[in-house]
UniProtKB/TrEMBL annotation:
It comes from Virgibacillus phasianinus. The keyword Oxidoreductase applies. The keyword rRNA processing does not apply. PROSITE patterns: ALDEHYDE_DEHYDR_GLU. InterPro entries: Ald_DH/histidinol_DH, Ald_DH_C, Ald_DH_CS_GLU, Ald_DH_N, Aldehyde_DH_dom. Residues 22-481 form the Aldehyde dehydrogenase domain. Belongs to the aldehyde dehydrogenase family. The active site is at 254. It comes from the Bacteria. It holds the Pfam family Aldedh. GO terms for molecular function: oxidoreductase activity, acting on the aldehyde or oxo group of donors, NAD or NADP as acceptor. This is Aldehyde dehydrogenase. Keywords: Oxidoreductase.
């Protein structure tokens, strides 16, 4: 194991400067593929919170006063800079969360495009107001204005994406930004903030790391923080809501899901099977909020579909583990030890509940094929599929956030809708059918913020991404980062 002095050190980004935690405390970041430390991050305190909020507040007047096209120029510069720094950032992200990333897809299709889209949206904000006839001599109109200081709280599974989508649109609208990454995956975000600080004016984007239990409530409850956008768990959303109650502020919550992937008997079976596999058993090991963790299959084709999924997922040529920087490996580990223990517990829960194990179930070093001692202490969980007729099981109702799915048969469209909606969540869903009328009916009846037909997880800046029910509310879009002001001028 590396000594602390040999680990790469990261620092907070406050007012354009690299700053250690005021108390000098750090914590190790663990590579989930090996289970060993590889870097250190600051453990910030309330003193650091005061500094970071002060920096963002001080930068706000000048940033918001810039012409929108000038802000857009900065955002385009950031998009361009990712060509130079992208490989480094993706490497750090992989060391953070264990994802085996497709560099082109993640960097060019996702991250860079968000910055360019936000740059294009910046000049549009001022044109979103409306005029109203208020009667003789009265002219009414509305303005869209930035909130001020926006706090973005990131999850541990997709730090760079969440950082980008929160910061880019908040900046486009004229806000300044504080980013609080998860303590389980902060290194990539700290380096990202450093790169941005070399482009943006000081204090426009700041990044502070530390334990949520130490600085989270203080950040959320700060009087000079005017809006909070959080991607994470329902439990974290509850804590944020309580912490913000004394000083009410606008909140965006993008929370979990227990998303159904529904296959009808008229579907293109091969296309649907690929969509199901990519929706839960891929490079991120099922650690995305939109994971298609419930596979609903029309009973006449149930055995055929499940057989094809099993055939693919039990072929060693299709499922490869190991070095997460090797893009030929198909699936990474669970991102951190607490989550690994949680995922492992659901393997046992599924068996105890009486669900039938179709394939998978192994954990730890026994997953690695061939065995590689360098990765034997990593947080590995094999892609696993259970089968049940009972959607009330814990493994059907609770978000596992790992490569564990449940296959459930249904008899008709009405039953498919009932099972799909029988959950506290409502984030995403997939429908596989060649019947256009059925597709339309399903998009209307499914209670979810996203419904994808004959595809899955098709996301991007062109459409909002939000949830229903306990999956949250609000979206990270440019208008969400503005507030509407009503104005009336009397000419009498």
């Amino acid at each position: 194991m590396k000594a602390a002095k040999d680990l790469r050190q990261f620092h907070n980004i406050i007012d354009g400067k690299l700053v250690p935690a005021s108390a000098g405390e750090t914590m190790d970041s663990i590579d989930p593929a090996t289970g060993k430390p590889w870097s250190t991050i600051p453990l910030s305190t309330t003193n650091d919170v005061d500094s970071v909020v002060k920096a963002a507040s001080k930068a706000f007047p000048a940033w918001s006063a810039l012409p929108a096209r000038s802000r857009a120029d900065y955002l385009r510069q950031i998009g361009d800079a990712l060509s130079e720094h992208g490989e480094e950032l993706l490497t750090l992200e992989t060391r953070n969360n264990g994802w085996t990333l497709d560099p082109y897809q993640y960097l060019n299709i996702v991250l860079k495009q968000i910055w360019y889209d936000a740059a294009g949206a910046a000049p549009i904000v001022g044109a979103q107001g409306k005029t109203v006839q208020m009667g003789t001599g009265n002219f009414g109109y509305t303005r869209r204005e930035p909130y001020g200081v926006v706090l973005g709280i990131l999850p541990w599974n997709a730090g760079l994406f969440s950082f980008t989508i929160k910061a880019a649109y908040a900046l486009a609208a004229g806000n300044t930004v504080i980013i609080k990454p998860s303590e389980h995956a902060a290194s990539a975000s700290l380096r990202y903030g450093e790169i941005l600080s070399e482009i943006l004016p000081p204090g426009v984007v700041n990044v502070i790391s530390g334990l949520g239990s130490e600085i989270g409530d203080v950040l959320v409850g700060h009087k000079q923080v005017n809006k909070v956008s959080m991607t994470g768990s329902k439990q974290t959303a509850e804590m944020i809501t309580r912490a913000s109650a004394p000083v009410p502020k606008s909140l965006i919550f993008e929370l979990g899901g227990k998303s159904p992937n529904i296959i009808f008997e008229d579907a293109d079976i091969n296309q649907a099977v690929n969509g199901v596999i990519n929706g839960i058993f891929t490079r991120n090991a099922g650690q995305i909020c939109a994971a298609g963790s419930r596979i609903l299959v029309h009973r006449p084709i149930f055995d055929r579909v499940i057989g094809k999924i099993k055939e693919h997922m039990t072929d060693p040529e299709n499922v490869k583990y190991g070095d997460t920087l090797d893009t030929t490996n198909t699936m990474g580990p669970i991102a951190n030890l607490p989550q690994y223990r949680k995922v492992c517990s659901y393997l046992q829960i599924g068996k105890e509940e009486g669900a039938e194990l179709i394939f998978g179930g192994r954990t730890g070093g026994e997953v690695l094929l061939p065995d590689d001692p360098h990765y034997s202490d990593g947080y590995w969980v094999e892609p696993t599929l259970f089968k049940t007729d009972n959607n009330k099981l814990q493994i059907c109702q609770e978000e596992v956030f790992g490569p564990i799915a449940v296959a459930i048969p249904f008899d008709d469209e009405e039953e498919a809708v009932r099972i799909a909606n029988d959950t506290d969540y409502g984030l995403a869903s997939g429908v596989w059918t060649q019947d256009l009328k059925r597709a339309q009916r399903m998009t209307e009846k499914i209670e979810a913020g996203n419904v994808w037909v004959n595809t899955y997880a098709m996301v991007g800046p062109d459409l909002p991404f939000g949830g229903f029910k306990e999956s949250g509310y609000g979206t990270d879009t440019v208008l969400e980062y503005t507030r509407e002001k009503a104005c009336v001028i009397n000419f009498n």
